[in-house]
Amino acid sequence: GIQVEQSPPDLILQEGANSTLRCNFSDSVNNLQWFHQNPWGQLINLFYIPSGTKQNGRLSATTVATERYSLLYISSSQTTDSGVYFCAVYPGGGADGLTFGKGTHLIIQP
Amino acid sequence: KAGVTQTPRYLIKTRGQQVTLSCSPISGHRSVSWYQQTPGQGLQFLFEYFSETQRNKGNFPGRFSGRQFSNSRSEMNVSTLELGDSALYLCASSLDRGENTEAFFGQGTRLTVV
Asked: Which of A30, A43, A102 should be substituted to probe chain B, the one whose Cβ sees the most B Cβ atoms within 10 Å?
């Protein structure tokens, strides 16, 4: 099946810093989503981005499907940005549901 | 518009018992998928239902089953519980088939098997 790799696995930053999270996938995909998992376990939708670039406030994302990667940018980090960020892809062919990466654990220190 | 609702939120079961989890999707959504999250294996796909039919199934034993009702609500069942079934079970709702649209997740059911 498709492989999804996220980097870095852990990231510790000071409040106000910028960060870039990366997601590489091994095959063509039908869709790609970025999520933030809150401390209670719920996955919060950040972006649905099979290709192109989107922005939402301090967050933006870019997916280059032909090169099989996606980037999530967080600017001017706040402590509330802490948590685990997941990239998930739906493989081309429509099988197997969303395949998740292992996540990036982000800690923003005051 | 209400989000995806999962019940119960927490559950403690004994090894060998069976359990049923429920998921109510966003109104108008026809696809429901289930995922298991454990510290060791991460988030793994269990199965997807669309219009009351199971479309896809992940690599899980037959003890894991599910169904979808005509109102799109879904249940998953785990029989003969094992300690390793302790996990956070997440349900996702999509307007259309999973590969075509954005998935929205519920708050999850945290199952502990003792």
From this structure: A43
Closest-CA residue to B84 (of B63, B56, B107): B63
**Per-run averaged pLDDT (10 residues), chain A, 110 residues:** 96 97 94 93 95 97 97 97 96 80 97
B19-42 pLDDT per residue, tens: 999 999 999 999 999 999 999 999
Which residue from B minimizes the CA distance to A32? B102
Q: Is the CB of residue A23 less than 8 Å from the CB of residue A69?
A: yes
Could you tell me if A21 and A108 are in contact, meaning their C-beta atoms sit under 8 angstroms apart? no
Which residues of B fall within a CB distance of 8 Å from A98? 33, 35, 43, 45, 92, 98, 103
Q: Output the CA torsion sign for B52, B93, B6, A107.
A: positive
Phi, psi (5° rounding) for residue A69?
-150, 160
| Chain B residues within 8 A of A97 when measuring between CB atoms | 33, 35, 45-48, 56, 58, 98
CA-to-CA distance for B80 and B75, rounded, in angstroms? 17
The rounded distance, in Å, linking the Cα atoms of B109 and B114 is: 16
Q: Chain A residues contacting B, CB < 8 Å?
A: 30-31, 33, 35, 40-43, 45, 48, 86, 88, 90, 94-100, 102-103
Rg (CA), chain B: 13
